[in-house]
Amino acid sequence: MDALNRKPADHSSDLGSEHDGDPTTRPTVPPARPESDAGARRAPAATPAGRDADVIVVGAGPTGLLLAGDLAEAGIAVTLLERRDDTTSNLSRALAVHARSLEQLDARGLADELIAGGHRLPGLQVFGDGMLPAGGLHSRFPFVLITPQYEVERLLLRRARQAGVTFRYGAEVQGLTQDADGVTVRFRAAGGGAGEAAGDVGSLRAGYVVGTDGARSSVREAIGLPFPGKAVVRSVVLADVRLDRAPDSPFAVRAARDAFALVGSFGDGWYRVLGWNRHAQAPDDAPACLDEVREVTRLSFGTDFGMHDARWISRFHSDERQAPAYRVGRVFVAGDAAHVHSPAGGQGMNVGLQDAANLSWKLAAVVRGHSPDRLLDSYQEERHPVGTAVLRSSGALIRLALLRGAPARALRRLGGQLLTRLPSLSRRAIGGVSGIDVAYPAGPGAHRLVGRRAPDLRLAGGGRLYELLRQGTFVLVTPAGEIPQEALREAATDRVVTACWASERRTALLVRPDGYVAWATDATDPGERATALRSALARWTGAGSDPTDASPTSTPSTSSTSSTVSAPSASSAPAAARSAGRSARR
Questions:
Q1: In degrees, to the nearest 5, what angle opens at C-alpha 453 toward C-alphas 448 and 458?
Q2: How would DSSP label each residue in 87-106?
Q3: Phi then psi for 207, rounded to 5 degrees?
Q4: Which of 508, 517, 527, 547 is deepest in the core (most CB within 10 A)?
Q5: What are the C-alpha distances in Å from 70 to residues 65, 162, 548?
Q6: In terms of Cα–Cα distance, which of 190, 169, 194, 187 is closest to 87?
Q7: How far is C-alpha 133 from the chain's CA centre?
Q8: Which residues have C-beta within 8 Å of that of residue 169, sequence separation ≥ 6?
Q9: pLDDT tens across 24-82, in order?
């Protein structure tokens, strides 16, 4: 069963009460940094000689910005390369921010500010009469937030700058080489920097490189990773317009016999319109006009809402593609550089943010010497199945929209009605699309909570788990009065913070910096609990152990695409990637 579609609701409810009040309220937890200090940076570790940075991130979209900000806040020296100049806006297609992404932004002190400028929808409308209600999600954010992607980027950019990320705009990656000690990235400069002329070729060296540079990723291409897949729908038009009449919902979707369209509100009088017309197929480079956008909207909704004053219009095609490996040696891909899929369900940006949250703390732990390099293999093991599941679910939605015959469209309407009327079905669907039900594999004999997302637990003193996660560390939650001081003496305070349940719950659990449960126990014997905790701290934080000997991941890999070596030579990296691609296609 797809990792995205598993339903761990029974296990999540085992974790106790969550904060279920107004998400604009923020109870205070004294040990955590308040939101205004969320960008404070830890003391940086020394970058090894011969390197310009610990990590180079390529691509300043939401995925790259979240990843770079996390690393910088952890004291890692980060350089972010972006081929655009700092005055050119990123192409912004995303409108929906789902509950799990809001939880990750909450753990960085950004969610409430983003919510204040957006629209909260009670659920996600699908084609036909279907609605996936989000009100039943076990989250502080039981809704879908409609806000433009550039607002997400604005907050993440501010945080990254405050944390100390070094930005190099106008830097287009030309290639890279890697060896056992690091990666050298070559780039062509657009000019404008000190002593820098357009066309100059420069290079930077780092311990690791992460490509978050989109579907046409230069990083992915440089390491020889294939990107198998196909186009699902072509000649999709996209426009930002004014409307004389607002739709019934700030996020409306309709499908007709030969067209579908989406109309979403930015909240400032502008609307994003996305549409496809079976009878108006043109190549991507063919210019689109406002009349074409009006036509596809009329075909789908029966009206164009008095559309006028387009500030920009473009045309694109939607692919389904996924790299067979997310890691080749010291180089990683994330977000659209690793997977692309149809816009149905609004999952693209959200999945990229989750990729970044999964990878960032692992990279920080390895760079700082707390964990072994092979911890980084778990990024592939945990995130690749999620990407595969999203391709399937978004692909199913877009194919429903493309159904043409009357019987097929009647079936689509029936499916939408079933989603609305069957709570168990709609709960499973919204749990997958929102990311709330995503869970990672756990090893044999692991506690039932291991690998599951930790909800925003209420803690003693009136605080919340996700406020503590703003410190970027593991969080140990124990019964009241039972914080195991002896075991914690061996753990560095910059790796683990402690809290107690607000309830009488007796489970002890260790929550990863990305909000997933790393370890848990229901043992009642104090000695047994202390021994198990000491082992878990050594395994996950390196406390009291040699990090080169620490157990690397939550579960061994069973995927043929995960078998990349830790540091291949520059010449072997493309060959390893091609081998992974062949294995994935078998």
A1: 100
A2: TSPPP----EE-HHHHHHHH
A3: -75, -35
A4: 517
A5: 8, 11, 23
A6: 169
A7: 22
A8: 60, 82, 84, 85, 86, 190, 192
A9: 333 333 333 334 344 445 666 678 878 999 999 999 999 999 999 999 999 999 999 99
Higher confidence at residue 184 or residue 494? 184
Counted residue by residue, the chain has a size of: 586
Distance CA 346, CA 98 (A): 8
> How many Cβ atoms from other residues are within 10 Å of residue 579's Cβ?
18
pLDDT tens digit string along 374-408?
A: 999 999 999 999 999 998 887 777 766 666 666 76
Q: What angle do CA 220, 164, 376 make, to 5 degrees?
A: 40
Q: How many CB atoms lie within 10 A of CB 401?
A: 23
Find the farthest-apart pair of alpha carbons in the chain and give their distance in angstroms, rounded: 73
Beta carbons within 10 angstroms of residue 548's beta carbon: 11
Question: Is 502 in contact with 458 (CB distance < 8 Å)?
Answer: yes
Give the span between the Cα atoms of 161 and 180, in whole angstroms.
30
Angle CA(232)–CA(336)–CA(188) in degrees, nearest 5?
A: 120
Residue whose C-alpha is closest to residue 202's, from 87, 81, 90:
81
CB 12 within 8 A of CB 434: no
Exposure string (b/e) for 172-193, b if CB count within 10 Å is 16 or more? bbeebbbeeebbbbebbbbeee
Q: How far is residue 512 CA from its own chain's centroid?
A: 16
Pairing of strands 78-82, 53-58: parallel
Query: Cα 85 to the chain's mean position, in Å?
Result: 24
Look up residue 262 and give its DSSP letter: E
251: its two tokens: 């996020």
Hey, is 486 helix, strand or coil?
helix
What is residue 459's three-state secondary structure?
Answer: strand
Burial (CB < 10 A; 0-12, 13-18, 19+), residue 282, is middle
In this structure, how many other beta carbons lie within 10 angstroms of the beta carbon of residue 502?
17
Asked whether 500 and 481 are in contact (CB, 8 A), the reply is yes
Q: pLDDT of 224-259, one tens digit each?
A: 999 999 888 889 899 999 999 999 888 888 888 888
Say whether pLDDT at 552 is over 60: no
Q: Measure Cα distances from 533 to 276, 384, 441, 476, 478 in Å.
A: 55, 29, 20, 9, 11
